[in-house]
Amino acid sequence: MELQGSCHCEKVKFKVKSNTPVPFMYCYCSICRKLAGGGGYSINIMDSLEVQGMEYVKIYRGIHEKNVPKEQQDECGNRRHFCGECSAMLWAYDPQWSQWCYPFASAIDTELPVAKRPVCIMLKYKAKWAPVPTEADAFDEYPDKSIEDWHKHNKLWQE
After folding, report:
1. Where would I find the CENP-V/GFA domain in this sequence (predicted)?
2. What is the C-alpha separation between 49 and 21, in angstroms, rounded?
3. Which of 91, 114, 152, 156 is deepest in the core (most CB within 10 A)?
């Protein structure tokens, strides 16, 4: 399924061919929570990416374990891309999995399918005020299925 997305000021536009278009996994880690813009979590979709306006894109790498001395802190491998003009979060990318990128569902302009049952991850790091849907599958850290596995298991994989 081809998805189109953009930042708020529309200086950055992108399209992605996604086999996994259902936004289902809510990440409550401190990095996603702070960068997601107040929802308490972020949602990613997986696959390839084509970008217009790359000159406006900035990259941020979060820090693991901010509560340790600065010399012991290490950067997250995941790079979060955002618009340098309007600050809208666009996609995440980790060179460890260079064949994929993860657009934030909030940046997608195309109508997205709705997950019947969301998956909430990184609840160990959740802010107390952030709600968790009662019907969700919940995980303290990472789930037992990848994005690809979840879509295939739920017969939502799209070629």
Report:
1. 3-140
2. 13
3. 91
Mean pLDDT over all residues of the chain? Answer: 86
Provide the 10 A C-beta neighbour count for residue 68. Answer: 11
Angle, vertex CA 67, rays to CA 26 and CA 119, nearest 5? 10
Q: Are 124 and 140 in contact (CB under 8 A)?
A: yes
**Is this model's pTM higher than 0.85 or not?**
no
pLDDT band of 92, cuts 50, 70, 90: confident
Amino acid at 101: C
In this structure, are residues 104 and 91 in contact, taking their beta carbons and an 8 Å threshold?
yes
**Measured distance CA(25)–CA(145) in Å, rounded:** 11
Fold of 2-66+73-153: 2.170.150
Q: What does the pLDDT read at residue 62? A: 77
**What number is the average pLDDT over the span 24-40?**
74
Report domain extents, the chain: 2-66+73-153
Q: How would residue 137 be classed by pLDDT, with cut points 50, 70 and 90?
A: very high
Q: In the chain, which ranges are E strands?
A: 2-6, 13-17, 25-27, 42-43, 50-52, 57-60, 63-64, 74-75, 79-83, 89-93, 102-103, 119-121, 137-138
